[in-house]
Design a protein that fits this description.
Elements (H helix, E strand, L loop, with lengths): L5 H24 L1 H8 L10 H31 L10 H27 L6 H8 L2
Helix pairs in contact: 1-3
Amino acid sequence: MSSASPVNRQQAREQVNQAQFDQADLVEEGDEEEWWEENDAEDDGVIDPVAIVRGFRRAMEFTDLIGVCQGFVAGASRLVPKLRGREFSESQLALVTRQVEKIRATADWIETAVATGKVDLDEALAELLRGQ
């Protein structure tokens, strides 16, 4: 039996559904069609099953990435309004500031990876994400 609350399960379902809709929109816009055209059929008319599986895996990874981003946004949208009137200690503020710094750096990394294909972590980002 799952320990997740019904609300959390519902939010997870909604996030997955939204990611699927986003993926479908990209397919409709033609972004995914390029992959199929490039990997459609070889000269003898045989479709390479490895290429098909690779394409499915890439689509799943994309959907996972969108889901992670939407999960963060949904969580923040739910939690931040609850902070109204809350006062934080200096140590709490420092901790939140450090975590937001990691979020910004990770978002920049995602943007760079998507725009350029460069997925390597530079040493400064790796240290930041490790908490050093």
